[in-house]
Amino acid sequence: MANTDSSSPTIFNVRKTPTFFIIIALLCIASYFLAAYHQGAPLLTTATTASLSLSASCNHHTAQSSRTFPRCSANFSEYTPCEDPQRSLGYKRHRMIYRERHCPEEPLKCRVPAPHGYRNPFPWPASRDRAWFANVPHRELTVEKAVQNWIRFEGERFVFPGGGTTFPNGADAYIEDIGKLINLRDGSIRTALDTGCGVASWGAYLLSRNIQTLSIAPRDTHEAQVQFALERGVPALIAILASKRLPFPSRAFDMSHCSRCLIPWAEYDGVFLNEVDRVLRPGGYWILSGPPINWKKYWKGWQRTEKDLNQEQTKIEEVAKSLCWNKLVEKDDIAIWQKPKNHLHCKLAQNRSFCTAQNDPDKAWYTDMQTCLSRLPEVSNKEETSGGVVDDWPKRLKSTPPRIFRGTIEGVTEETFSKNYELWKKRVSYYKTVNKLLGTGRYRNILDMNAYLGGFAAALIEDPVWVMNVVPVQAKVDTLGSIYERGLIGIYHDWCEAMSTYPRTYDLIHADSVFSLYSNRCELEDILLEMDRIVRPEGCVIIRDDVDMLVRVKNIVNGLEWDSIIVDHEDGNLKREKLLFAVKKYWTAPPPPSDNKN
């Protein structure tokens, strides 16, 4: 349960300088300059209701809320607006289209509650192996997947033993088997995609090998699998291979994985495997385990005929060959294919062609999947890697991404990248003087709503966190590919819509110039309500923007039950850009009626 001790150490700390008092005096005379400096005693405590106290005189940043947003009813506690299980029933079953994003015409205007009894998640790395039942009150998988060692229910908590459908002996042992076939420890593999992830044990155990995996699964009959992953502190997203491209750039992942993920890889002209090809880096690996691999041993247990399984594997082999992939190995229950480093000598089968130049492989927001093959950047010889070679991890993080040094991102140079890296180290250092819990392990899941080059995430790399880097589809330039080339992960998104994730996904949300970007595109209150939905109780929000915009934002925030404060830019109070730090108060849905009975 949340701590209510008012003597707890403070979260926020604000500096006092002589310049501050001069500015306050000028503000009181002029009543004009909105960049007033917030001063006072320690501002937020780690108490559950983290009270905020502002004591600056003539405080021009204090905005009165014109509207208070009500709390939603308890049945909205797991509301995912664009993957609503009821509304999805009105869409086509063909190719699982009904499991894709289908957003409501009108956004919800109330605040989604945490379930009664909600508790702060276990800190990482303990969270990898356990979660509170009250936070994700679903026992279905403990029964359905009991023999597969996915998850167990013990007292008030879930325990994740690390098993999976095709690795009942544990994800760690399974990963070691993969590591005997390809090198998982030399830093050449950093980013991975897990399709049909279960509770994301594969991704969870790869983290100890410095491999960051983005695990995806639909919101389907396996209730709350992505929610369990996020509760464990593992990167995950609600997503499905159906009719639209995944929200990733081309050439993003070093490795993709499917362990009995039930995706019909050979069907629909191999369109799903073609999508995997699009998001795999040149030379990247695709790993398949479960049906039909090793069907001669398991066909009876899978309750399928030998002929059927043999045909399925043959078709998969044919699709992979049509993509110019090379099958590296099939050993026991694991098969691995490798995408070519370039397409110099790729001869396509009659049933497949290269996409035209007009078909941008990085366009991935509500974009139909293609059966044409995304052509890799041109090379001069067969040994050259299309698009450029990325350094091994961890050097990769600081090295200039190939998309930048090759000049493919308009207006972004090597100098731009270098300055951005240093800038965000400075900014994050300043953030930690304001929010003293940042970097302590209190926050695990972090969202950067406008990531640009991933500098914010890079500056946090030594902390026990992971960052979902979002590049808005409305951004001036598409930088998400370069973020992946740094060894970081992220998605495309439009913040006029809800994110494909469960409520209470993130411990901290960072929003740099997001509200200026969207000020004429959609209602700012809808973006803030979405932030309220996906940030955890007692989670932190950091918003950077022009002072005029921040005053507008704070006016809305006052109706969200957030404790907030506007502080100066790290370079001082003469900068128009300011920062709003906020903490979402702890509150939950009321207890169900049965809990009130004597």
UniProtKB/TrEMBL annotation:
SUPFAM superfamilies: S-adenosyl-L-methionine-dependent methyltransferases
Bilayer-spanning residue ranges: 20-38
GO molecular function: methyltransferase activity
Annotated Gene Ontology cellular component terms: endoplasmic reticulum membrane; endosome; trans-Golgi network
Record EC number: 2.1.1.-
Main subcellular location: endoplasmic reticulum
Keywords for this protein: Glycoprotein, Membrane, Methyltransferase, Signal-anchor, Transferase, Transmembrane, Transmembrane helix
UniProt-recorded name of the protein: Methyltransferase
Organism: Vigna unguiculata (Cowpea)
